[in-house]
Amino acid sequence: MTESSEWLIYRGAGEPHDGMSRLPPPPPWRDFSGRDADGDSSQDRRLGAHRHLAELHRPGAEELEMINAALYLRRPLLVTGSPGAGKSTLAHSVAYELGLGEVLRWSIVSRTALQDGLYHYDAIARLQDVQIAAQGGDGAAAGSPGAVEAIGSYIRLGPLGTALLPSDTPRVLLIDELDKSDIDLPNDLLNVLEEGEFEIPELQRIADRLPGGEAEVLTADGVKVRVRDGRVRCRAFPFVVLTSNGERDFPAPLMRRCIHLELDRPDHNRLATFVRAHLGVEAARAGDDLIARFLERSRSELLAADQLLNAIHLTAAAAPPSRERLADLLIQRLDRSR
Question: Which positions carry the signal peptide feature in this UniProt record (predicted)?
């Protein structure tokens, strides 16, 4: 092979070879090697990069003021801006600096409903367990005390529900890409964000049959907590960051209840910090020219910082003649099809 093609693992020559043995380690955000039979490393991968970004994040004056306004007023912070502007990093930076624990993340898609963020009740699993217990003759029928007390085992709070649990200090909740939701979700959020509480009807109906009116349920981060009278009510309103790529307008009632921060396109320093957090100092230094080209193109094209990460990681493995062409192939504008 020529020098420019030595980095290729798959050669398209139709001949078996041991090229896989030369495949270098994956980029950090695509490393699944930490998985085992009992867990998933995906959260650790994301948290590692976000934690490093949080340490390096230096907000501008307006960003700093709007974050503090949301903290003082106990209002959600609606952050809009282009992909890679640092919207998600903001939430992690606040949590890291103020010691508020891991960020709860609720990623929004077009099918997401308010219920998904509050809690999930697995009625089918409960019915199946009751039927199995009844067949086994242990007397755990649906209305028996044991079955009633166990109902909490079938309820898991979502990210929003977990953030609203009573505590002395607020949790940080990232509601990511709200503009991808259907038309109803922004309005559905209004009451919960205004009142700081919600009800779990499945627990309210049987509260008088529960010891102390309490049921033990699971939180979004896997911790068991007790809920009294089927109601979750915060003491410290969570620091809620709603992000949007600016793909739609939100209803006035939601905007009125939020502090709105518009982030500018990331500058060279912020992009270099982003690359450094994911790939290290040397990669950021080696990719300096590519960062400058990315910035220049982003003035007239819709690009995402993830594309820049992919390009810098891959071009480091390729021979110099191929690097510029590879970067152009990986960083394609997102605002039109080719």
Answer: none
